[in-house]
Fold this sequence. Notes:
The complex is a heterodimer of chains A (325) and B (340). Chain A has 325 residues and is α/β, with parallel strands linked by helices. Chain A is built from 11 helices and 14 strands. In chain A, the strands form 3 sheets. Chain A has a 7-stranded mixed beta sheet, sandwiched between helices. In chain A, helix 7 crosses helix 11 and helix 8 crosses helix 9. Chain B has 11 helices and 9 strands.
Amino acid sequence: xxxxxxxxxxxxxxxxxxxxxxxxxxxxxxxxxxxxxxxxxxxxxxxxxxxxxxxxxxxxxxxxxxxxxxxxxxxxxxxxxxxxxxxxxxxxxxxxxxxxxxxxxxxxxxxxxxxxxxxxxxxxxxxxxxxxxxxxxxxxxxxxxxxxxxxxxxxxxxxxxxxxxxxxxxxxxxxxxxxxxxxxxxxxxxxxxxxxxxxxxxxxxxxxxxxxxxxxxxxxxxxxxxxxxxxxxxxxxxxxxxxxxxxxxxxxxxxxxxxxxxxxxxxxxxxxxxxxxxxxxxxxxxxxxxxxxxxxxxxxxxxxxxxxxxxxxxxxxxxxxxxxx
Amino acid sequence: xxxxxxxxxxxxxxxxxxxxxxxxxxxxxxxxxxxxxxxxxxxxxxxxxxxxxxxxxxxxxxxxxxxxxxxxxxxxxxxxxxxxxxxxxxxxxxxxxxxxxxxxxxxxxxxxxxxxxxxxxxxxxxxxxxxxxxxxxxxxxxxxxxxxxxxxxxxxxxxxxxxxxxxxxxxxxxxxxxxxxxxxxxxxxxxxxxxxxxxxxxxxxxxxxxxxxxxxxxxxxxxxxxxxxxxxxxxxxxxxxxxxxxxxxxxxxxxxxxxxxxxxxxxxxxxxxxxxxxxxxxxxxxxxxxxxxxxxxxxxxxxxxxxxxxxxxxxxxxxxxxxxxxxxxxxxxxxxxxxx
Lengths: 325, 340
């Protein structure tokens, strides 16, 4: 069976969605030429004016998508790098997130904003950021961050079908690195569900994006040492799948949360709080976090970048300590 | 009731000098007056402690009503800003609905008490929900127009703001995109002379907001915003042209904010009294009455009858709205996400 990469899965989902629903259209910088990561390659030729280059203006990309979604279309916007989305923060958080709330659902926005995020690509300060915590903080926006190609495909379909604004995060380091066998129709799925990707009794690792793959590698290492880790792929960061989080924490009694985002104010804090509030009696050890250091952005030099990024060794070391607690 | 006179029937025939019929002229006066008198009543309710906040459009009624009348109700979209009560009235909002909104009552369909007053929305009437963050709605307007263009729907969007808001990036980004794609949007700026306390020279280095058209290779016009008929005559051709693929239009209506910024503002700190007195002579309602009276369109008693009707309507609306239920505290929850 042929394997597909993350970027191919994204492209396939866009193509399938545009094919089946003529309300779906794409808007973003360089999307007509296929985009800098080639997510939209070939789609301009196939769908013509439904693939639209935007000026270099992120507030425009999101604000225009709001208008088009309000009108009844299904915009799928692309922000070229997640680092640049902040110019559109106001449109996302003062407008899109509240559209349904402030009209009690009279108006709503079926729109998706896709953007490549994450580090490990020598992208320096403005091509490496983790932005998920800013937006996951905002009720009214759904935030999705898959890890495997099949999930990219099915969750992008689910995001486009969702009547709410969805921030769809694509880890750029995994675009061509992670491949998976994929055929047939995309799996029916819904936003807001996490998945136990690897089972184990000794501790649970929660992760998403590139860190999910690093966590799986760390779990493999630890398995060789007799420690069995459960690994949970969070998939949707807002709303979090509290049920799966609590069930896993209770089942293993020890919890490690991994993200690339900086430690302070990162999603790990929220996950830890959910567990501390609702599963305290089940815990056998303090909750651990492996995250980026509290510095404003990822440095460019490869040694400093490596220092910043959590990886399988750092995760394995923390998991080992936790298992021994 | 102030009068028992039967309302005269108005002709629908367009008058050459006006490009409006007698019926439309009556509607124009009625809506301008309704907007002003509603705002007056709202301020009174605020001073009585019954309404926490009022933001009004006194001095801008002609601009608002003249522009909104140039659109097709039920077809065209309105992306207004918080002073645009007059536009909402033209689009079908009733005095009762305006009062429900002021009082943040449970059944206020603009936001059900979730937003401050004057943050309009009505999906059926195609009035787009907006926030307090100014000119964000300009991009929404352009996005609606982009969608309509993709669907080949012959609609026009009217996006409105004050001149102070034109400093924001979203204003410029929207003009830029709409001009590139020749979108059917009328960007309508009600230049009322003030952004709270800041006079226009503090917000822009050009004499007219409409001068910005050059940077976007867009058509534009300046119109006397105190003259509702002139506003209609300027906006209507721009709307027709946009509907036929002629692209966007930037229109600046020169008007004047006759009142403080809001019920919480004291404009005596920054506004010269003499300036206010001078502009009060150009009150759009006064100008309209003078013109239609001297042109012999309506006799004075007809105009008086409209005033009496408006007063009665507002009195009833306020009394009714005050009796309507408030939202329950827990109505704060829900509809964070749309469920289909």
